[in-house]
Automatic annotation (TrEMBL):
Pfam families: Fer2 (PF00111), Fer2_2 (PF01799). It comes from Rhizobium gallicum bv. gallicum R602sp. InterPro entries: 2Fe-2S-bd, 2Fe-2S-bd_dom_sf, 2Fe-2S_ferredoxin-like_sf, 2Fe-2S_ferredoxin-type, 2Fe2S_fd_BS, Beta-grasp_dom_sf, Diverse_Oxidoreductases. This is 2Fe-2S ferredoxin-like domain-containing protein. One of its GO terms (molecular function) is oxidoreductase activity. Residues 1-77 form the 2Fe-2S ferredoxin-type domain. Coiled coil: none annotated. It comes from the Bacteria. Keywords: 2Fe-2S, Iron, Iron-sulfur, Metal-binding, Oxidoreductase, Plasmid.
Amino acid sequence: MVQLTINGVARDIDVDPETPLLWVLREQAGLTGTKFGCGIAQCGACTVHIDGVASRSCAMPVSAIDANQEIVTIEGLSPDGSHPVQQAWLALDVPQCGYCQAGMIMAATALLNTTPDPTDDDINAEITNICRCGTYNRVRAAIKLAAANSSAAQKG
């Protein structure tokens, strides 16, 4: 039995402690927005936040997570899709197939939380998620739009 706080809700989950967090989120918690891509923490489709840090959940056993840590999935980012990053993704039609986009949005959100006005170098260093459709230019543009919109909202 492990205790996890997922999207603000404490849950007791009966699972082997070595089970990857991704499968606990998808199978036990029913949160299927986080995707399986590679299984070796390289592609980023499985990105979630753990205490605000973008983390690859496919290779992280639930035993590595303390009950006091907060896990946020794409479902918990914004219940109505109003988060500035989600809005920028929509405004610029970022996804093609969309499979990697939940992980991309989670990585972009973590970047903007630590670097509110990222440069291209900041984006290159932090957004290492793989998009098979190659929408990287739109991802970069959406991150910059979200940063601008967040900055404008804070000033207003």
